[in-house]
Amino acid sequence: MTASRFLDETLTRLLVFVSTIILSSMRPVWADSSACPASSNYLSELKRFTSSLRVEQDYSCLTNYPSISSKITAYQLVDVRKSPDFQIDQAWIIPTDELKHKTFLAQRPLLLLGDGFSRVSLASDCALLKRAGFTHVKMLIGGAPLWRQASMKTKYPSTPQFVSARNLITEYFNGRVSIISASEKISENLKNMGITKFATLAGNQFSVVSDLVVSTSNGGFDPVVYVGDSQNQLSINNQQQLPNLYQLQGGIDALVTQLNNDVLVEASREAPQGIPFCAK
Fold it and tell me: Residues 192, 200, 141, 85: what is their CA dihedral angle, to the nearest 10 degrees?
C-alpha cells in the first residue's frame, strides 16, 4: 500500500468517526424515551405545558340547537372546519383564521359550525372574532355533526363519537369537560396521572352513563368523555345517543401515551442542549 493510499484511507476513517460523533450529538434527547421514562405523576410536572394550553375564551357566542332553531333563517351558516368530511347545504366554508379578516361580514348574523367536540376552541374563536369586530356571531355547540343530524329529514341511527387524547387534555386543562371512568382500575390510573375530576361508573349500562351526562355537563353545554379500555367498551343504544357524549379513542392507554409524550417533550425543552434531561 502506498503512503498516499494509506493517508487517504486514514482520513476517510477519521471523517466517518467525526461524523458519527456529530450526528449522535444532534440526535433529539427524547429519541431514547424508552430509556428515560417520565414519572407517574404526569400532570403536575407539565407546568409550562399546561399554561401554554390556556387560551383567551369568551363563551357568550355559544348556543345550542333548541335555543337557535326558531331563528335559523336569520343566520348565514359558516362551516369553519379546517378539513370538512361532509358538506353542509348553503354554508360558506371559511375557517375562523380567514373569517376574522373578512370585516365586511362583521355586522352580519353568522352561525358557525365547527368539528363539534371542543368548547374551548369555540370560546377562543369567539374571543378572536369579537376582537376583530364581529358582533352578531353565534357558534353551535355540537358543530357540523349536530347540525347534520338535526336538519336531516330522514333520521339515521346515531353512531358513537370519538375524541383524541390530545383534545381531551386541552379541554380538561381549561375546565370544560367531564370525564366518566369505566372502572375503578381506570379511575386509579387517572388519579396516578393527576386527573382528579371524574365520575366512576358503577356499571356499564347506558342508562347510568346517560344520567351522568345529564348531571355533569352543565345543562348539555360541556362535553362528556367516557374513558374505557379493551375490557370496558361503551355499548350505545343508537336511539338514545347523547349529542355531547364522546368516547376516548384508544381508551386509557392512549391517554397514558399522550401524557407520557408531553412530559418527555416538555422536559427536553427545559434541559440544557446536549445534556440528557433524565440525567440525575
Answer: 70
Look up the pTM and report it.
0.70
Contact 105, 134 (CB under 8 A): yes
User: CA 190, CA 187: separation in Å to the nearest integer?
Assistant: 5
- The tens digit of pLDDT for each residue in 135-166 reads 999 999 988 988 888 877 656 566 788 999 98
Chain mean position to CA 189? 20
CB 128 within 8 A of CB 103: no
Burial 183-192 (b: 16+ CB within 10 A, else e): beebbebbee
Residue 133 has pLDDT above 50, yes or no: yes
**Comparing 280 with 230, which gets the higher pLDDT?**
230
Q: CB neighbours of 243 closer than 8 A, spacing ≥ 6?
A: 142, 146, 149, 220
Q: What is the mean pLDDT of residues 39-52?
A: 51
CA pair distance 216, 82, nearest whole angstrom: 30
Q: For residue 58, what is its C-alpha cell?
A: 369568551
**CA-based angle 254:164:120, to the nearest 5?**
135
Give the C-alpha separation, 192 to 181, whole Å: 13
